[in-house]
Amino acid sequence: MKAIAVTPRTQNSARLIDAPTPALHEHGALVHVIRCGICGTDAEINQGLYGEAPRGSDYLILGHENLGRVEQVGASVRAVKPGDLVVATVRRPDDCHNCSHGESDMCLKGDYSERGIKGLHGYLAEYYLEVPEYLIPVPPELVDVAVLLEPLTIVEKGLWQAYKIQERLMWEPRTAVVFGAGTVGLLAALALRAKGLTVAVVALSPRGTLNSQIAEAAGAQYFSTQDISIDDLPKKLGRIDVIFEATGSSLVAMKTLEILGVNGISILSSVTGGNKTVQFPADVVNQRMVLGNMVAFGTVNANRRYFDMGVGSLAQFQKLWPGLLMRFVTRRVPLADFTIEVLEDRNGVKTTIEISKE
Fold first, then answer.
1. Which is nearest to 243 in space by CA: 310, 158, 182, 160?
2. What is the mean pLDDT of residues 103-110?
3. CATH 1.10.10.10 corresponds to the domain 153-298
4. Average pLDDT for the chain
5. Which positions ≥6 away from 58 have C-beta within 8 Å?
6. Residues contacting 78, CB < 8 A, separation 6+
7. In this structure, CATH architecture of domain 2-138+328-354
8. Distance between CA atoms of 324 and 266, rounded to whole angstroms?
9. pLDDT by residue (tens digit) across 278-327?
């Protein structure tokens, strides 16, 4: 089968290869991949920043945002059947307490593996083999947008946990700010709008771009940091109850703590590399957070709970804003036409690799 792979820790090694088609076993399902989304993680692995091949392999098949159709199932499989549309989860557990209770996203030891990232081949291939435990059924009406499910799970997890944390008080959030207008940021804006909040999306790109048009089509306000200072947002919006940070910038992540409102909560989803140092008003921020009963927490990856929730949210978004999710996919590249440039393309919102027909 054809697949897109890298030599881990080797810069610009992404390439189209011939790889063995996985062999079906009694407990597995063979999935024919329809499409995969490309994200910054794939680009960073290609840059050699991280990535780990499966044991015994000198290459790693990329891809963790996925949609496929079950082609064959093993004799003991009942949860899925041939013809089913599925999205596969990403992380696989180790033997720690949390992983043993279905929370591999809250792993204590760090010995987990991740499809297309750490120790397991990913989904940028014509086929993959998986056990049903990690396959999320998707209704046919979501076939055009289900490739967005994996990034949406980051939002689902962040918001579910934020609302769970805020059960500590009588909380009626009204205003939310989303930093970042990439795929995760825009999905967060849709999710917060669906909850009835007034939402502002703040990003570097100017108003009028597709990203801003998507935000505004969902009823959110859009602000470019070229036109407004982050420090001025509370003056413009009033008390900020929820912040969802998805920029990839540690500076912005820290800035959220300076503008968060009383009793507010800041959800940090950016995984930042490097060792950047910035000046930070630690005393002021600490005092604000203590006296204002504020919370900030980090979130990454997602377990099955949030994938299941995300399927429902995609259907809800489709009803609220017909056709809007389709605008997220701004570039579709056939598998045979893959080049490294595809991984580095920052134009538009979401690029997908089209692998087979729906």
1. 158
2. 96
3. no
4. 96
5. 7
6. 132
7. Alpha-Beta Complex (3.90)
8. 26
9. 788 889 999 999 999 999 999 989 999 999 999 999 999 999 999 999 99
Under 8 Å between Cβ of 220 and 199? yes
Tokens read off for 214? 């998507």
Question: What is the pLDDT averaged over residues 148-166?
Answer: 98
Query: 97: Cβ–Cβ under 8 A, 6 or more apart, which residues?
Result: 108
Is residue 267 pLDDT above 80, yes or no? yes
**Percentage of the residues of the chain whose pLDDT score is greater than 90:** 93
Helical ranges in 127-167 per DSSP H: 149-165
Q: What is the pLDDT of residue 279?
A: 81
In the chain, DSSP assigns E strands to 2-6, 15-18, 29-38, 60-61, 65-73, 85-88, 91-92, 113-115, 119-120, 127-130, 135-138, 175-179, 198-203, 221-224, 242-245, 265-268, 295-298, 329-334, 350-354
* Closest among 87, 83, 92, 136 to 111, alpha carbons compared: 92
Task: Tell me the domain boundaries of the chain.
Answer: 2-138+328-354, 153-298
